[in-house]
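Q: What changes when adenosine monophosphate is included in the input?
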Amino acid sequence: MRTLRTTREVRAALFGARTSGKRIGLVPTMGAFHDGHLSLMRTARAESDVVVVSLFVNPLQFAAGEDLHRYPRNEADDAESAATAGVDFLFAPSDEEMFPPGFATSVDPGAVALGLCGANRPGHFEGVATVVTRLFGIVGPDTAYFGLKDYQQVAVIRRIVEDLALPVEIRALPTVREPDGLAMSSRNRYLTPEERERAVGLFHALQHASSRYAEGERDPAVLCATAAATLGDAGLDVEYVEVRDAETLGVYTPERAAVLAVAVRVGDTRLIDNIVLAPALKPVQRFAGRTNWSEA
Ligand code: AMP
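A: The predicted holo structure follows.
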């Protein structure tokens, strides 16, 4: 595996693959790799001829007062894990490379970025959309891989790809969890042992709401209250608990699949998770790695 620092190096490294029609897979990340990241890399490896992983802690997606400065950074360890997962190139640019003098463009994904994390993290999804669009421009991937743990992020990326007609297929992969169910996250390493024990309440809350849904409950207020009660019992501070339409993230209607999305604070750490609620549903149409759901 080779580490690349500049757009020029990336273009030179990928030139041969691109001109010979090889498939390029990109996994955008902020580093501090865990099995969630590695599952994206392994899938990219299985589906692509050339795998590029970007490692860039994107300052645009952190609001003032968030954890930009303490975000875990260990490029040497990450490079080793990525090499083991079969990655060909690690693209680890500097801030100056990503934001050269005169840089001024911002990508605003519109309504899909409002609400949920967008409401609580001003500018977050514009920051994600701007940097991911630039990464797509630098790497020119055929396919880009994202995790459904960041459910709204996937919706944002799909929106910009569609609206800007970007020639890339988006693959969204399931959330990888710890044995007790806690979603893997680079931020889990902030947790004290006591906070780590409480944090699993996030997963239990999703499960309780999901059980109510499986029993036939369709009232979003009841589903949210079920989750909120479990979060409260676990001693987690709720930032939001919401049920939204699983595809548009707009208002939920009972005949369509829903996503229950949750953000909490555990001490100084912000954690998110989600679950798709879709009983007796079957995928009826697949295109570009995307699934449309309808009642079976
Ligand atoms: P990050 O480094 O946190 O920006 O994440 C990079 C990519 O890994 C994003 O597409 C995330 O959604 C994905 N990811 C993070 N945690 C997980 C997880 N537990 N399971 C699957 N994908 C994940």
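Observations recorded in class: The first helix runs from residue 7 to 19.
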